[in-house]
Amino acid sequence: MHRYRTHTCGDLRLDHAGEIVRLSGWVHRIRDHGGVLFIDLRDHYGLTQCVADPDSPAFALVETVKSEWVLRIDGLVKSRSDDAVNPNLPTGAVEVFVKEMEVLGEAAELPLPVFGEPDYPEDTRLTYRFLDLRREKLHRNIMKRAEIISSIRRRMVDGGFFEFQTPILTASSPEGARDFLVPSRLHPGKFYALPQAPQQFKQLVMIAGFDRYFQIAPCFRDEDARADRSPGEFYQLDIEMSFVEQDDVFSAVEPVLRGLFEEFGDGKPVTPVFPRIPYQEAMRKYGTDKPDLRNPIVIEDVSDHFRGSGFKIFAKMLDADDKAEVWAIPAKGGGSRAFCDRMNTWAQGEGQPGLGYVFFRHEGGVLEGAGPIAKNIGPDRTESVREQLGLGDGDAVFFVAGDPAKTADFAGHARQRIGFELGLVDEHRFEFCWIVDFPMFEWNEDEKRVDFSHNPFSMPQGGMFALENMDPLEIKAFQYDIVCNGIELSSGAIRNHKPEIMKKAFEIAGYGENVLQEEFGGMLNALQYGAPPHGGIAPGIDRIVMLLCGEENLREVTLFPMNQRAEDLMMGAPSDVSAKQLRELHIRLNLPE
Question: How high is the pLDDT of residue 519?
Fold first, then answer.
């Protein structure tokens, strides 16, 4: 017989009855039922009920057992009586009568319980993460993560991609978030950086002629924590392809993600064909470039109904500012003063002066609009707004006014709040979309100049002709995001593979060739030796797993996350280092007061 087990704690079934078996695992629970002791023994694979009565040779030892002790149990498999069968447990038709027991490891008093899913403080959970991970839900999430990553690898290989590993120690990048720096002992005063992403390396892989690359890539960014990004490090499905246009990237990535969400989404419907929404359209319809398409609400421009109206706040705003618009957020089923007042209070809590509204009701057999705005603009204009939005009795509409560049974000949040409050959002599906046609440049109001809108290495639509002949603020880039349920999974782009176009793009943004050479000389040099047209994307692994596990925080799908202050409470990182280590690195600390 094996030293520790003949079966796992998830193996035993009715056809094992009558066998002598050996199990090893943790004490999940121990119960005393009138002198008969029951141990639920747990391992990675499942849970088995073990029984010891006073006739058991191991009874005295079983009486000493406590939660989370590690045991080896030898015993006889017996079928349970009909009224004792546990249909919720794969092993619930049998139990093991304890013949012999060995304590493999005792457990001190637990700082947090493993049984059940109690809501314990984050610092306690992270300090004792190894215990936290024993909890069923979290253990299940981590295993699902492993299965998802295995499926991704299989799908990528089946799609003709090859997995390569890019360097972890690299040069510091001037773009994006802060780098994590690693001092060099061999080169005093110089530093490596941990990669924020393998962006330049994966492009160099294409220039080297490898055609289709992918990697489950670790990325390191010294930035503040967010619910949808772990502080310090995260993982992404890094992809790059040669001799492709935007449609080719979409055709390669879309089946992978759709198949992945169909495989692990617990039967929830997945968008069959991902719609492509231009950036400007997304901002105007949804108030965000990360739209949650489960929400049916579409924002509409109703400015014309307020020009010259009796609602002076909006009317004067529209007269004074050519950029100003009045946006309407329809709310079907929101037509009560109580709901409207609640939304107005929410808006004030968001730092806004309020959220104007009209709600519609039958009064004396006539459908009319109610509320201060309806009174000020009159019945005809109110009716025109209602007809444009297709609203009826029991519905409402909320208004956001101003320069859309400044108000769109709030309008988008209001749209989401209304959708969830009124139960309009179908939370049992996965709605994907591509956001396309991002602007190449934007106006930097602080510095009064044109600057890159997002990714300076994207290929401008129209190439050199666009850069030389169009208003920079009208130029769009071959840049795209993929969004699921309002969460951005990734940005990607067709890369600018021509040095002369790159130089011109940087010149428009006010960067001389010397800056380009100094900051990105390695990439610029590589592009001069025959670079293929190429492009890619990098969906976030952590965010994908978070969506598929139905979680709202990455801590619930990551093995050993840091806390919100980027501290590893379990291992004590970041930590002090010895004076000897600092001397070897030629570093002297200059700590803040």
Answer: 79
Structure tokens at 385: 């707004």
Exposed/middle/buried for residue 418 (C-beta within 10 Å: 0-12, 13-18, 19+)? buried
Contact 12, 94 (CB under 8 A): yes
pLDDT band at 436 (very low <50, low <70, confident <90, very high): very high
Strand, coil or helix: what is 423? coil
Residues in the chain: 593
- Say how far apart CA 447 and CA 510 lie, in whole Å: 11
Three-class SS state of 21: strand
| Strand duo 20-33 + 36-43: pairing | antiparallel
In the chain, the largest separation of any two C-alpha atoms, in whole Å, equals 93
Distance CA 587, CA 582 (A): 5
> 54, exposed or middle or buried, with CB in 10 Å at 0-12, 13-18, 19+?
exposed
Omega prior to 574 cis, within 30 of 0: yes
Whether the CB-CB separation of 355 and 373 falls below 8 Å is answered with no
525: enclosing H helix or E strand: helix 513-527
| CA–CA distance, 568 with 557 (Å, rounded to integer) | 16
299 burial via Cβ count (<10 Å: 0-12, 13-18, 19+): buried
Please tell me the pTM assigned to this model.
Answer: 0.92
Beta partners for residue 397, in sequence order:
330, 358
Structure tokens, 214? 């992918």
Q: How far is CA 438 from CA 281, 413, 432, in A?
A: 11, 21, 18
Whether the CB-CB separation of 408 and 325 falls below 8 Å is answered with no
Give the span between the Cα atoms of 39 and 22, in whole angstroms. Answer: 14
Separation of alpha carbons 323 and 321, rounded Å: 5
Give phi and psi for 478, each to the nearest 5. Answer: -80, 70
Residue 181, pLDDT > 70, answer yes
For residues 395 and 361, the answer to whether their CB atoms sit within 8 Å is no
The torsion angle over the Cα atoms of residues 374, 375, 377 and 381, rounded to 10 degrees, is: 50
Looking from the CA of 203 toward its CB, the CA atoms found within 13 Å total 24
Compute the C-alpha angle 260/141/216, nearest 5°.
50
What 3-state class would DSSP assign to 194?
strand
pLDDT digits (tens, 9 = 90+) for 463-511: 999 999 999 999 999 999 999 999 999 999 999 999 999 999 999 998 8
Cα four-point dihedral sign 450, 454, 457, 458? negative
Q: Backbone phi, then psi, for 507, in 5-degree steps?
A: -65, -45
How many CB atoms are located within 10 Å of the residue 559 CB? 12
Q: What is residue 445's predicted lDDT score, i.e. its pLDDT?
A: 83
